[in-house]
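Ticket #4471: structure export looks truncated?
Reporter: QA, pipeline team
Priority: medium

Steps to reproduce: submit the single chain below to the structure queue and open the exported record.
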Amino acid sequence: MRRESVEFRVSRFKFESMEVMGSPYLLAHGLGVPVKAAVTTARFASPGPRRVWVRTRDWVAPWNAPGAPGRFQVVVNGRPLTNTFGTEGAHWHWQDGEVVNVTAETRVTREGNGVSPV
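Actual output as written to the record:
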């Protein structure tokens, strides 16, 4: 399987954790108001199977708080992945998604708690 990455392009990044995570991250926080889902089109050199990995964490895990308010789902070409992300671990880590079949142009959406579907 080939290794390729998909990034969401947004106008504003959260830079405070650059030293901890090593890169900016997409944070969908509408302060109680749902925000639009993040959507991108990934272009692949060839169609076929790809394994999805998502860099994530449970935002309230350091305090042993219940709920995981930052949970979200990744949708590839209209098909939600089985895993719910943002529900594991107090520290940043790569959470295994699953293997998906991609096309030359694949729509990837991040939907979740507090996020309105596109």
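Status: closed, not a bug. The export was complete when the record was re-opened. Leaving a note from the reviewer for reference: The chain has one domain: 18-116.
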